[in-house]
Amino acid sequence: MKYRTDRIMAPPIPKLIEAAKRYVSSPEFLNLGPGIPGHIPPTDSLKAFGNTLLHPATHRYTFEQGNLELREELAIYLRQNWNVQVDPENEISITAGANAAFAGAIFTVLSPGEKVVIPSPFYFNSVMAVRLAGGEAAEIPVGSDFQVCYDQIESAVDKNTRAIFINTPNNPTGAVYSREIVDSLVDLCIDKDLFLISDETYGRLVYEGATHYSPRSRSDAHERIISLGSFSKDFGMSGWRVGYVVGSDEFIQEFMKVQDTVTICAPTPGQMLALDILKHSLDEIQEEIDRLSLLRDLAYLRISEIPALETARTPATFYIFPRVNGCTDSRRLVLDILRETKMLILPGSIFGEAGESHLRISIGPLTPEAVDEAFDRLSAYFRNH
Ligand SMILES: Cc1ncc(COP(=O)(O)O)c(C=O)c1O
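# pyridoxal-5'-phosphate complex -> structure
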């Protein structure tokens, strides 16, 4: 049979997990693939959630746009963290994760045949969503420092272009785009009448004195900035499926047509837990974010001892994205690493053409001992090849 989805890449991670199946039950197996941190949501918030289990409201839909109290707390959080001013009644929708926010935004603004300009490497689900909507993704390679090249983005914009997409802090590179570059992209969108869609899922996971700059903090461009975020990573809530999208009043009204069709609303239990964390447990979240900083230091130290890997240190996320000298097929390489070291790592090629020759190593779910063990095995692997 022919399917509309034939032109979309199959979800890449399940395929790799399938390849890793025979190693997973081994006590030596180490998983450096998943894009999650090791922590779970703060205990006090989980206990408070437990007390709501018998309340009927926990088991029912919320407003399509999400629980209003959560939107209000989120508006305060966005202002305090990134100077983002947003009206919680009209300019936010809670979504079933940032993926649903991105796909919903794409279905809201993109018509078939239109183009989205995307710096590459990129988070692969973004390009899958553009293609699902019948759009074209124009991949623009980033520089060797993983920063966006403004001139290349500008020259990729043509009369068919509807939006520019950025993901900062970035998965898979860990780069944080500078305020100058983000501002210049906002100006370009104003000039060319485009949307700037900004995935800020890792906005809190920023280290080493870097700061995340949200394009939505620009008060002169609210109608063309669509910014999205997630509670999956820093709040340790990936299984609860809660994220959000921020846009103009008009955009949110249009977006709700997609959300109502697809999920109606984000899962109510997840919204309740996110609300409790925003109100009571942000200090515990910060402790987890700080703990990840120590893991990053250890991983960057250990990876610098492997001559086959060229690693540009970036200041955000729990991903490390080294280039492997002489590698032209990162998928083959990760399968070989899996066979020899019993470790699953993601190939850079699934993050776009510019990701080829790289590996994406996630240290998020590991203990410090496991990070040491993983780099011992990687060192030994590259010494022997
Ligand atoms: C850049 C980026 N955006 C969105 C997501 C998905 O987030 P959520 O779990 O909120 O759908 C991820 C998950 O890895 C991601 O890396």
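# post-check
The mean pLDDT is 96.
The domain at 4-41+283-383 is CATH 3.90.1150.10 (Aspartate Aminotransferase, domain 1).
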